[in-house]
Predict the 3D structure of the following.
Amino acid sequence: MKRREIRPTQSGELRHRCNIEERTPGTDSTGAPSVTYTLWAENVAFAIDDWKPYENQVAQAVERSVITRIRIRYRPGMSGAGPNQFRLVYCTNPGISPAVYEYYDVLGAVRDINLRVELQLTCSLRDAAGYRVGATP
């Protein structure tokens, strides 16, 4: 029986930077439900590993979405996160005006079972209007 190799995160693997925001549901002045996001962690190093397209056929229409896996260092309070509890805000062109942001909704977070070194996040990419990228209208 071969043992699984325990490997800490290597320098240079997590080369992108993002902010993690937590969803805070509430109500506006009229009493209607509203959702806002508050900064939970700033300048977090992450890596985008791979993209997985999914297609479902619902009511004779094909629904497409793009799912990605993002790795970050282990953060207490984030493992086991529920769907859409957190989101990652990634500036694709830092230092250039106007800034372009990508939003990744965290669908699930799984910690590394060996050393608690990494969290693996399953995310859905959203555009600035809040719609999933790749979804058909």
About this structure: The radius of gyration is 17 Å.
